[in-house]
Amino acid sequence: MARNELRPVIKLRSTAGTGYTYVTRKNRRNDPDRLVLRKFDPMVGRHVDFREER
């Protein structure tokens, strides 16, 4: 399967300032702007917002 730029690999960095990141893929056609997901940050021990980093 060929990799294309429609579903690029992105990094999600914690807004809590811990430097913890998740790596995922996103569909650029459905989500053209930066992605924000609420995920668990083990450094803080709670759920925080993770923002897409380019």
What do these coordinates show?
InterPro entries: Ribosomal_bL33 (IPR001705), Ribosomal_bL33_CS (IPR018264), Ribosomal_bL33_sf (IPR038584), Ribosomal_zn-bd (IPR011332). This is Large ribosomal subunit protein bL33. Pfam families: Ribosomal_L33. Belongs to the bacterial ribosomal protein bL33 family. GO terms for molecular function: structural constituent of ribosome. The chain has 54 residues and is mainly beta. It has a single domain, classed as Rubrerythrin, domain 2 (Single Sheet), CATH 2.20.28.120. The chain is 0% helix and 46% strand. A four-stranded antiparallel β-sheet has the order 2-1-4-3, with no helix packed on it. A hairpin with a 6-residue loop joins strand 1 and strand 2. The mean pLDDT is 92.
Short account of what is shown:
The protein has about 55 residues and is mainly β. It has a single domain (about 10-54), classed as Rubrerythrin, domain 2, CATH 2.20.28.
Key structural traits:
Ribosomal_zn-bd, elongated, single chain, 4-stranded antiparallel sheet, mainly beta, Rubrerythrin, domain 2
Instruction: Give the strand content.
Output: over 45%
The total strand number stands at 4
Q: What would CATH call the architecture? A: Single Sheet
Quickly name the level 1 CATH class: Mainly Beta
Please, how many helices?
A: 0
Low-confidence stretches: none
Which percent bin holds the helix content?
under 10%
Cα separation of the termini: 24 Å
CATH superfamily: Ribosomal protein L33
